[in-house]
Amino acid sequence: MGAAADEVIAAHAATEGLCILTRDHDFGDVRNYPPGDYAGIVVFDVPDQLKLTFFLELLKKFATDELTISQLPGRLAVVDPWRTRLR
Length: 87
What we know:
It is a single chain. This protein is of the alpha/beta class. It has one domain (6-86). The protein has three helices and four strands; from the N terminus they run αββααββ. It has helices at 6-16, 52-63, 66-71; strands spanning 20-22, 41-44, 76-79, 84-86. Strands 1-2-3-4 form a four-stranded mixed sheet, covered by helices on one side. Strand 3 (76-79) and strand 4 (84-86) form a beta hairpin. The two termini are 25 Å apart.
């Protein structure tokens, strides 16, 4: 769904009970995308020039953090190379 409009992605995720994982900071705007409407929203705040291998390691680290994953439904997570913030 990478080429789909944000609204289409959000509607699909909400309907199917899916978590949104993205680098698109638009999804971090809780006024437009209230986290309570989704199984979670995860915005990866990483530079464009980040190497793919580093990004995959960051994704793996996030995905294996059982405490954060358990707290994710209905919340926004912002993940950067140094930390994960839940809102």
